[in-house]
């Protein structure tokens, strides 16, 4: 088994270190001189799509949320995201201008599959995003865009989350392009995607958060906060931590703190703030200040060059500066690594979290 892990202690950490190559595989054939292209969707009528409904579970659901923030920023498309266990019991309205995107790493999650069957019966066109060639979802959907992350053994999704994001950014760009929407921001996003394998490589080589993890491993609670496109990063960070470390981690859009969760904060309840200097930076900064006023300890993750937060927060983790839309991607390895280190330091096996399965094939 040690050989399978190529010298790494766990599959999870091995798979985090595989992210640069995983991204490269997701980009192969999809980066052209004319920009991003998803050949799989050539025959699809994306020009006329006015509504997009995304359905997924767990980590895949968080990737879907990033897509929503990304695409709705540029186009007047009505985008809705739901977890499959809710979606399948709602009355989902679809018409000929609706596209359904079903995301499932394994392609075998029961609730997601049932959601696909239901909307197909209503006449919807379904694009599946999956990592497993020939999986059930790929057979039941109209077309599949593969993540190409390679097999993932660790129960907690890592490189497949990163690749879901990459593929969803490409899907978003494809839809926007077909609708005649393309601008400098999107061009910068695309350039960043192309550079991301090397940026990930450097980030994974350079960053050391062992000491930080060791300090935080004994806390029993965590509050993750983020805003806008960085809100899903807070959700995913909290999910990773609770899945493998069994720490009571919860995530909120930072603006909601004042409506309840802030009551929990005290010196024993640290806040993990997703706070790049993007379009909502001043807003999250003031949420950090409010948390600090409750004497909560704060770790912030932000972009290199941001010295502004040093005065306010207790700990800071830097990632390379990125276009606003791309922080969910470049911050992924950091939140994953933080959860991994804490789980390992607490003496748990991150590859085999209790009560969880890699794919949930029953309802
Ligand atoms: C399980 C796994 C999660 C995963 C979720 C959805 O709960 O433990 O890591 O995100 O299923 O899986 P899917 O294969 O449909 O993306």
Automatic annotation (TrEMBL):
Residues 37-181, 212-353 form the SIS domain. Keywords: Aminotransferase, Cytoplasm, Glutamine amidotransferase, Repeat, Transferase. It is found in: Cytoplasm. The active site is at 358 (for fru-6p isomerization activity). It is an enzyme of class 2 (transferase). GO terms for cellular component: cytosol. Its main location: cytoplasm. One of its GO terms (biological process) is amino sugar biosynthetic process. Homodimer. Catalyzes the first step in hexosamine metabolism, converting fructose-6P into glucosamine-6P using glutamine as a nitrogen source. This is Glutamine--fructose-6-phosphate aminotransferase [isomerizing]. The gene is glmS.
């Amino acid at each position: 088994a040690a050989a399978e892990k190529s010298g790494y202690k766990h599959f999870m950490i091995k798979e985090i270190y595989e992210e640069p190559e995983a991204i490269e595989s997701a980009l192969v054939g999809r980066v052209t001189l004319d920009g991003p292209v998803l050949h799989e969707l050539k025959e699809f009528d994306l020009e006329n799509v006015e509504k997009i409904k995304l359905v997924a579970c767990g980590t895949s659901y968080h990737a879907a949320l990033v897509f929503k923030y990304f695409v709705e920023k540029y186009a007047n498309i009505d985008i809705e995201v739901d977890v499959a266990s809710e979606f399948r019991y709602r009355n989902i309205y679809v018409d000929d201008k609706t596209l359904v995107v079903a995301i499932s790493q394994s392609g075998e999650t029961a609730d997601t599959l049932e959601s696909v069957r239901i909307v197909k019966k209503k006449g919807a066109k379904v694009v599946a995003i999956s990592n497993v060639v020939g999986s059930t979802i790929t057979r039941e959907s109209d077309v599949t865009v593969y993540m190409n992350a390679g097999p993932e053994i660790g129960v907690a999704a890592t490189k497949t989350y990163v690749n879901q994001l990459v593929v969803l950014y490409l899907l978003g760009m494809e839809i926007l392009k077909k609708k005649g929407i393309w601008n400098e921001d999107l061009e910068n996003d695309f350039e960043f995607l192309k550079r991301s394998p090397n940026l990930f490589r450097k980030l994974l080589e350079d960053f050391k958060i062992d000491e930080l993890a060791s300090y935080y491993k004994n806390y029993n609670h965590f509050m993750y906060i983020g805003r806008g496109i960085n809100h899903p990063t807070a959700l995913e960070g909290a999910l990773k931590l609770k899945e493998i470390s069994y720490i009571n981690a919860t995530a909120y859009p930072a603006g909601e703190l004042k409506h309840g969760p802030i009551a929990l904060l005290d010196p024993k309840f640290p806040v993990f703030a997703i706070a790049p200097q993007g379009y909502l930076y001043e807003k999250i900064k003031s949420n950090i200040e409010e948390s600090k006023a409750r004497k909560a300890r704060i770790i912030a993750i932000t972009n290199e060059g941001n010295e502004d937060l040093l005065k306010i927060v207790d700990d800071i983790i830097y990632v390379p500066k990125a276009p606003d839309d791309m922080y969910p991607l470049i911050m992924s390895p950091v939140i994953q690594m933080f959860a991994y280190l804490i789980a390992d330091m607490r003496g748990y096996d991150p590859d085999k979290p209790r009560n969880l399965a890699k794919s949930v094939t029953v309802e």
